[in-house]
Amino acid sequence: MLGLIPWLLLVGAVVLFKENRRGQVLWILLPVVIVRLLLVQVRGLSPSEASMFISMIDCLLIGFVLNWLLAERIGNRNRFVTWILALLIFVVVLGVNLVNLGLGTEALQISILIGLIVGILLE
Hints:
Layout lengths: L4 H12 L8 H15 L7 H23 L1 H4 L4 H23 L3 H18 L1
C-alpha cells in the first residue's frame, strides 16, 4: 500500500492543476508506463535488490514527470529559482519514496545515489 504514495503525487499533479487536465498529458505518462512495465521483468536480482532498484527508478521517473508537468508553473522565474524549485520537487519525491524504503543503510545509499544523479541532470 505504501508503494502507491509516490504515484499519488503524480495523480495529484494531473488532477489538481488545470493545465494538466488535457489529452497531451498521456504522452508524458506513456514513457513512464512503458519503463514501469519493463521493470516488472527485472530478473537476476534478489527481492531486496530489485525493490531498491525499482524504488530508485520510480523516484527518478516521478520526479522528472512532475517537473515536466509543473514546468509551466516553475519555469517563468529566474534560472536559480527555477533550479531550486525543480530540485525541491525531486527532494519531495525522494522523501515520499523513502517512506517506502524505511530508514536504513540501503535507503541512505539510494538517497545519495539519487542525489548525485539529480544534481548532475539538473546542472
